[in-house]
Amino acid sequence: MNKKPKIILDTDPGGDDIFALLWLQSLVRQNLAEIVAITTAQGNVEAEVTFACASQVMGLLGLESSIPLGKGVICQQLEIGDAAYIHGNDGMGGLSGTLPKSQHNFEIAPAADEVIIEQLSASPGQITIIAIAPLTNLAAAEEKCPGILKLAKEIIIMGGAFQVPGNVTANAEFNIGFNPEAAEIVFQSRTDIVVLPLDITNKLIFTPEMAVELTKEQQNHSISKFVMALTEFMTKTSLVYRQTEGKNGFLIHDAATIAYLFYPETLLLQRGNVEIELNGKLTKGQTFLDHRHFPKSQSNSWVALEVDNYNLLACFIEDLKHL
Ligand SMILES: [Ca+2]
Question: CA 321 from chain center: how many Å?
């Protein structure tokens, strides 16, 4: 019996998204995971760019073009701009020219919410959604087809900041703060959402030395060259924006979702009811957990609040050698 997880990756590449996809594909190569679809979201850069970026990286990694690639549902009334200042205008540090051309056509691509609805309906209870972008696509699927997100085996989200500052405002983390209303819909859709917040991803500093280690056997391989160049770019912008306590490296936030699925021993999770501020003048998009010792009538999530970052990164590096 084949028990390997079937996965939809909802992503807005984005440097750390690309590293999450590299990790996932390295597990596919080891016959430990299956990617059933990739849906791209508007977020770090605009929808057309995240789509092209994902398509190009799929080409680099040799992912089959038969894997559906959804284009992001457009989010209206944005209060927060994208994060091209961190990830580059093409979402990958200006490296798009070094990769194979995009193999998917944005105009005729299916919408991400349609892909999610179709996949979950066809295989109820079997597909894990890894969401490493603003939750616009998942929310659109739930609004179009109420109850559809319950058909996922599990929903794993990189997002939120509980006992640490936000990264897009003083209080909000990017994936939640970019579209808090969408996040609210997703968190109300079921009672077992898994959340990997900044509290733990702020500790996942990937360094140029680690990039050298994982590429040293095959320095001239196109994937190795891409990893080295992307690491160099992301490290530079991360230092400018003071994301790594001055350490030479960058945060691979989104890769924490892969760790949860395949290396759960590196994480400690707390049960709780995640709530999202939708109205606050200074706190919109902030995520909350009530830590008071009062009886709680409900919980909707499992939230990771501690991480064994050394071992998580060690697993990441060893797996990526399989690409
Ligand atoms: Ca992302």
Answer: 21
